[in-house]
Amino acid sequence: MEVKIDLFGVTKDIIGQSEIRYSLASPAKVHHLLEKLKAEFPRLQALSSLAVAVNSDYADHDQELQENDEIALIPPVSGG
Amino acid sequence: MEVKIDLFGVTKDIIGQSEIRYSLASPAKVHHLLEKLKAEFPRLQALSSLAVAVNSDYADHDQELQENDEIALIPPVSGG
Amino acid sequence: MIAITDQPISVADVIQAVQSDRAGAVDVFIGTVRNNSLQKNVVRLEYEAYDKMAVKKMEEIALEVKAKWPVQKIAMVHRKGVLGIGEIAVVVAVSTPHRKEAFEACQYTIDTLKQVVPIWKKEFYDNGETWVANHA
Amino acid sequence: MIAITDQPISVADVIQAVQSDRAGAVDVFIGTVRNNSLQKNVVRLEYEAYDKMAVKKMEEIALEVKAKWPVQKIAMVHRKGVLGIGEIAVVVAVSTPHRKEAFEACQYTIDTLKQVVPIWKKEFYDNGETWVANHA
Fold first, then answer.
1. What is the full DSSP assignment across B5-61?
2. pLDDT tens per residue, range A22-66
3. Closest chain C residue to D88 measured between Cα atoms?
4. Which of C31, C90, C134 sits opposite B77 (nearest CB)?
5. I need a labelling partner for D85 at 20 to 30 A (CA). Which of A37, A71, B74, C9 fits?
């Protein structure tokens, strides 16, 4: 299946785009996505944290991804 | 000596004026003034606190009063 | 900006008074007239102040707060006279580099103001009135 | 009032949004852009937000705060885009019957906002730029 991932902050700089489309073998969990991305973009491994948001909520690593999920990478936040 | 005493809040209601002039034997201390006033206006005794300000500072009970001091009775405050 | 005023307080002016390029945090406390107090229905209230001493005590609080916290600027304005429900009685604003000290300094300021500044509040109810005493 | 905006934030509007006749206390936190950060000279900064999720998380914080404290009303607005020194990045306002809870609820709100709301700050210095990470 293909998922679209929104990128923000430093992850946008590391990956070089504000969104990417990604093919994952079904069923795919959050940790599968993270492992694949970290392998392809090693600078992601240096971040003090890297969360995944699914449909505007922080997702557990073993949450299963669905094709129409709104997915985003959440590097360390710095609002306020 | 004669002193002028400014009255605020409930002390103004109890004494019925916004200022009074008062004769005290010299040397007079803060506690002499308080004792005299509480004897003359017994309702002052019912207040949870009654401070005396001399020249815009809270005065100790044994501070000596001077003729030109600015004196005020300070019942429990309720600003804010 | 430290003042007792018989005019409505402009919160914007008080905040403007603590603006500083070196401050990243501003905490503002606004005390307003509630429509109830100890189960009674408050219709309005009146603040009386010993203006001269009140300003002196507020200036002393400002000095104390600046000594305790890295405060860039501090402002406090208290209203006096008759106030209706919802009107602003007091505004305290403090600017600091970081937010933790802004909250601490602002809370200390209003807590201390309520304990030592010679201002008195009279509440008017449907059927009576009373001078209020703050708890120490 | 809960929002992410690319326009300057009106503090007055945020305060107005928490006005309540039953509230005696309003605490307002204003986060502004400081001219220095970790000894570096900040010339401007840029906030990026995941708007949809940011608003959802702020709404969740509001519900949590209302469950923990007797909050009458709560408002939070965060700016995004390019901001100069002294500009307002965030405003949180909370109204409660008494002041202690106003301070507690407001501080909890901004502390939590900084930890969980997906907003990112990039600082621009005289000679470089960096994405900032808040401490948890």
1. EE--HHHHHHHSSSEEEEE-PSSEEHHHHHHHHHHH-GGGGGSS--EEEETTEE--T
2. 888 889 999 999 999 999 999 999 999 999 999 999 999 999 999
3. C24
4. C134
5. C9
